[in-house]
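chain below, 339 aa
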Amino acid sequence: MKQATINDVARIAGVSKRTVSRVLNGSLSVGENTRTKIQNVINDLKYSPNTQARGLASSRSYLLGLIYDNPDALYLDDVQRGVLEVCSNLGYELVVHPCRYKSETLVQDCLRFISRSKLDGIIVLPPVSELEDLAQALRDSGRAYVRLSSVALDDAKHIVVSDDRAASAEMARYFAQLGHEHIAFITGPQAYKSSIERMEGFKLGLSAYGIKLRSDWIVEGNNSYEKGIECARQLLLASERPTAIYANNDQMAAGVLKVAHELGIQVPQQLSVAGFDDNMLASRVIPSLTTIRRPVRQMALLATTKMIMSIENNDKGAENVAAKVAPTLVVRESTAKLT
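prediction:
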């Protein structure tokens, strides 16, 4: 069978080719009824736009970039699913670019990637998104970009924020209400703003109950499972050990569970453990992990929607897309009242 063309879609839908093109590009200038009619014809004909041809016609590549330096594969998978959910509907493709957060040439490397790949827009994940030098370079380049972060580092059209501080304060209140006062915290890297936000929120939540974190029970990790094990051993082999441990992410919290099991410490009867993220790991470890559910896929979806609106010169629409999400507490088997 002959492959359907944009002309076929326009003819059957009774609209102009330009109107079909606007729908394919995600433009908001087409009315909902017309958009639905065109989309139904596209579905019936199984029409798939030729990305290369579209790019030549519009001086765009229809390629979006994802820049990251994050060791958590589950987090990255969630992000990509959120981005692709939008891309698949609007005819864009995704190109990923791992980088080294501490590299002296990071900004230049990212700019070369963007230029080489001819990207229309870029999504930047933490901690790379926290680098103002990179954000300024993206602004200077004139490319559309959106940063995912735990603080409002940029204008609304360029940022999607997870309120990690408020979420960690909620975790602190939960621990306190369970009766825990001897609480330890395995932080993330202190160079990351997300780590600072989670620690400050946790301290703030505990202070409402008159509880102060002991300095020797604050241990810095790097968000890896292996570092979680190392930090847990430091805390649980001490002469006095905490009754509850909050880890900056689920990977490190899983490391705590492993060490507790090795030392014969019962979770949650003798030790409550909690993490942050609620990725796939959290519900599969034993005992299942109490954690903060960060809506990563939703953040990625919002970021992609903002960016495509900016590409389509709809800056007002990009600004009006939600710029902040609220992580929520998920209680599972790894925490319990102090007895």
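The CA atoms of residues 248 and 289 lie 13 Å apart. The two ends are 72 Å apart (CA to CA).
thats it, cya
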